[in-house]
Design brief:
two-stranded antiparallel sheet; 14 helices; 2 domains; 368 residues; 2 strands; elongated
Length: 368
């Protein structure tokens, strides 16, 4: 018992460090670097935030939402459809990739080694990237609760890092033009006039916005080439179900309520409960996994050979299984029940192989 208690404490500590401590430290450090005149370890902290934060974001997203299929596909009531349409995923994924490339350039290449146009293009791609990630944050807001709110910590950090990267690059460009103007003053009034124009932050801002519209135009051309459509970025969010910007009405969810192992098969994470296919139970569509098929095959055999015994087993199952199924309201709970039921599943399987002539055929035909 003491060992089990220590394991629970260690598990909780590891979870707390991953979920709270690391994101908290990185967030505070990023805010400090944004506000400080002399940032500390800015590049390292930024990349740790992007990659470690991205990994934590993916894990938390999978934990918070069990997504399975586009809006027109049937999922169970404990699952969500994709928050971004897979049909138009390119229209979101490609600009996000460009944004990360822009961040890499802005953080790793100083202004004296970077042409102004490349700098402006990088800043524009980062701006587009941040618009998209803000829209994504709003898109998932409809279903975010509890620990899922930590997803917004990553969105906020990406925004902070982007602001820091853009500010760093613009400051370097302005300082660079100041240095050049001092050494080139003897070249005459034309150079001086040109410097004043370039040195103006507003002029640099105009260049960024020109590049912004240039990138948007290129993206639109690519979307048309890849048959995404001009409105692909909008459809990526609206051609969905269950989310903030969703406009589509999905098919009815697969039924699983009222049956203990049906709840587990339909509600758990796919990598754990391993759903095989859809099946039918009392005219309703349900999600079927091997554990459910084995249990039902065992019950079927008992009903055929020992109907009196089956009556008592069915009564016990209905009395305790149904109430328990009402508490299986999250994928994690379904996963736990699946693991707990494993020894019983093996016992049923051994029984079938010992007494049934064609056990696999009986298992396979369940819920067809």
């Amino acid at each position: 018992m003491e060992s089990l208690y220590l394991d629970d404490i260690l598990t909780f500590l590891v979870f707390a460090i991953i979920a709270y401590a690391i994101p908290g430290i990185l967030t505070i450090w990023n805010i400090y670097n944004l506000c400080a005149k002399t940032p500390k370890m800015e590049k390292i902290i930024s990349w740790l935030t992007i990659f470690i934060g991205g990994l934590c974001y993916s894990m938390l997203y999978s934990f918070q939402f069990e997504t399975s299929g586009d809006w027109y596909e049937q999922v169970n009531v404990m699952q969500h459809h994709y928050s971004i349409s897979s049909q138009y995923g390119f229209s979101i994924g490609f600009p996000v990739l460009l944004g990360f490339v822009g961040l890499i350039i802005l953080f790793n290449v100083n202004a004296d080694k970077l042409p102004p146009l490349v700098s402006a293009l990088s800043i524009a791609s980062v701006l587009i990237f941040n618009i998209i990630q803000i829209v994504i944050a709003v898109q998932i807001s409809k279903n975010v609760d509890g620990i899922g709110t930590l997803l917004y910590v990553y969105h906020a950090n990406i925004f902070i890092i982007s602001v820091a990267a853009v500010r760093r690059q613009v400051k370097q460009q302005v300082e660079l033009y100041k240095d050049r103007s001092i050494s080139e003053e003897e070249n005459g009034k034309k150079i001086s006039w040109l410097y004043k124009k370039i040195n103006s932050f507003s002029q640099y801002t105009i260049l960024v916005f020109i590049c912004l519209f240039f990138i948007i135009a290129i993206l639109e051309i690519l979307f048309i080439i890849f048959r995404q459509g001009i409105d692909a970025p909008i459809k990526a969010f609206t051609d969905t179900a269950d989310w903030t910007f969703s406009k589509q009405l999905p098919p009815p969810p697969a039924e699983y309520q009222g049956h203990y192992l049906c709840t587990v098969a339909a509600g758990g994470h796919q990598k754990v409960v391993k759903p095989l296919r859809y099946g039918k139970r009392h005219g309703a569509i349900i999600v079927v996994n091997r554990q459910l098929c084995i249990a039902n095959a065992f019950e079927e055999y008992i009903q055929e050979k020992f109907p009196t015994v089956h009556k008592y087993i069915r009564g016990f199952y209905d009395k305790y299984g149904y109430p328990v199924s009402k508490h299986i309201t999250t994928p994690v709970r379904a996963d736990v029940i699946y693991v707990i039921m494993k020894p019983l599943e093996w016992l049923f399987l051994v029984f079938l192989y010992m007494f049934d002539i064609k056990p696999e055929q009986r298992i396979h035909k369940q819920y067809l």
